Structures are given as structure tokens and as C-alpha cells.
Amino acid sequence: MKILVPVKRVLDANITVRVKSDGTGVDLANQKMSMNPFDEIAVEEAIKLKEAGIATEIVAVSIGPAQAQDTLRTALAMGADSAILVKTDEAVEPLAVAKILKTIAEQQGPDLVIMGKQAIDDDSNQTAQMLSALLGWPQATFASKLEIAEGKATVTREVDGGLETLELSLPAVISTDLRLNTPRYASLPNVMKAKKKPLEEIDAASLGVALEPTLKIVSTAKPAERKPGSMVSSVAELVEKLKTEARVL
Known about the structure:
By secondary structure, the chain is of the alpha/beta class. It has one domain (2-245): 3-Layer(aba) Sandwich (Rossmann fold), CATH 3.40.50. The chain has helices at 37-51, 68-78, 94-108, 127-135, 188-194, 235-244; strands at 2-6, 9-11, 33-35, 57-64, 82-87, 112-116, 139-149, 152-159, 162-169, 172-176, 199-203. A nine-stranded mixed β-sheet has the order 9-8-7-10-6-1-4-5-11, sandwiched between helices. The chain has a two-stranded antiparallel sheet with strand order 2-3. A hairpin with a 2-residue loop joins strand 8 and strand 9 (162-169). The longest helix has 15 residues, at 37-51. The radius of gyration is 21 Å and the shape is globular.
């Protein structure tokens, strides 16, 4: 079974976000970039399926600038077999990403596309659903457990008030939630081996997908700063503050 795993290069989750002085977006200059955490979970799940003898090949794909090679090398170091970089310096919206991934999926012929449920930079949570619709494949989002057997995927996902279990015929699109697994760290030997694994580059313009944005960022602003907290010496003082200062009692 062949698995396609889209991965996105985003601002590292441990970095303090800086807003550009003109409010047009987030300042990425000289900032540490990493693989989107939800995509790391998707890579880990694909590797687990290969280690279990269910999957035979894992192809990682990323859409972005030349620097996204680093993200793909991380996926290769974790255990992916090969990688594809769809190169573009433009910001690509979810629908365009889904259309590009549809083209790559048609070329690669995977049995399963597994990807993060959302990227932490835009929190759109749209690409997996759009890709499923474009391909005409069944989808299961926010997977917290995945089992593959006899040409079907059984996915457990968290819903309000409990768990929901779905059965999908392959090929299918599945997006991952945090509880699916804990991604592994790539060992130094695997990092070195990853440098020799195949990484193909494709010009995004050659795929015939319109990349022009349809959305415009009107403004970006930092959240309002919270007031500093204070310590109280007794429950009575806390209750008094809640009544007179916070006015919540």
C-alpha cells in the first residue's frame, strides 16, 4: 500500500509570533521554521503502518519555497521513502493546495492520503476535505485511531460527547488529530541517510493550477495583553476581589 503524506513548512510552534509593523501579516524573517505539528503526526502514522507491514511506500509532498526542502528532509529522516517539492514562492490558499495535491495523487496513485487536520499558521482546516471532494474519495477527519485491513480503513474520531467510528473504503483521505500518536525524533544516522533519499522538485506553475489568492488579509494584530495576576492570602480575600474587582460574583 502506498501512502501520500502532505507536509507544510510553518513557523516553529515554540517561537513567539511577531506581527509585521504594517499589520499585513506575521513576520517570518530570521525565524525558526518547522514541519506543521499535525503533519508530523501524519508522517508518524504512515511510518507505523509501514512498520506493521501494511504500507509499502511513503511519499511526502510539500508545497512552498525552496526552503521547504528542509521540511521534506525531516519527513525522510523520520522514515518516508521519497519526497516531492511543488515549488512556489507565492502564498497558496487551501483550495489551490487541494488542487495541487489532487494532481500529485493522480500521478502517484496512493491508496491513502494522510495529512494534518490543519496547519498552525492559518488554522484553515479545509485542505483534507477539499482534496477528498476533488478526488471523489471518502474522508475521515480528526482521526484519533486508525486501523487498516482488507482494503478498508477504520477511523475513530472524537466528537461532542464521545467517540465516532467510521469505516472507509480505500483509497481515502484521512486527517490526523493530536491523540493519534506521538511523532518520533529522527536519529542522527537517519538524518544523514535522508540526504541521499530521492527528492523531486516540480514547478507549481507546470501543474496548471491557478495560484492567485482569492482572499485578502485586511489586518493582523497582536492579542490584547492580559493584566498581571496577583496572589491572595486567603479565600476570603479572593472572594472579596471577585466581588469588587472582577465583579463576577
